[in-house]
Each structure stands twice: as structure tokens, then as C-alpha cells.
Amino acid sequence: MPVQPSTHEDAYFAREEFRKLQEIERQQQEKPAQEEKKRLQELHYMCCPKCGMKLVEIDYKEIKIDKCTGCDGVWLDAGELEAVSKLEKSLADSLFSVFKK
Asked: What pLDDT is stored for residue 101 in this prediction?
């Protein structure tokens, strides 16, 4: 005599099937998102967020500072502002004098 599955078993297998389909869908959406992120990074890498011109990297006291060739904007990467704030005042003043026109 065959055993009929209970409603709990049916619910369990339905949840498992949904979870598997959900994971497949997430993986399918993740790949185009990664490709788009890579494309945008290649398009905008080392470009000024303000005017779009190229950025030049200046190495000053082991701090790499990006300066725009167009608008003369100065851009810092993660952690670089903290590094600048830890410089002695005389070193910080000389750093800022590098960027004066």
C-alpha cells in the first residue's frame, strides 16, 4: 500500500524547489551585473568624477593623490584622508602647496 505524503512534506518540497529556483535566478542575474560593473570601471577608471578628464596620480610621502588634468580637483582614495590628517602640520602645509596654482 503506497504511503501518501503529508501536507508538511509537500510544503517542505515546495519550499526547497522554490529555494533552488531562486538561487538559479540570483546566479543568472549576478553575471550580467558583474559584467556591467567591469565595463563601467573600464570606462571611468582614472577619470575625474567632476569633469570627466583624466586623473594623474601624484605620490607624496607614500600617499597617492589623484589630481585632475582639467579642473585641478584633488581626489583621495579610501584611507588617504586619514593618512593626510596624520601628517605633521609642516608636511601637510607642503602637501597642500603642491596643489596651489
From this structure: 60
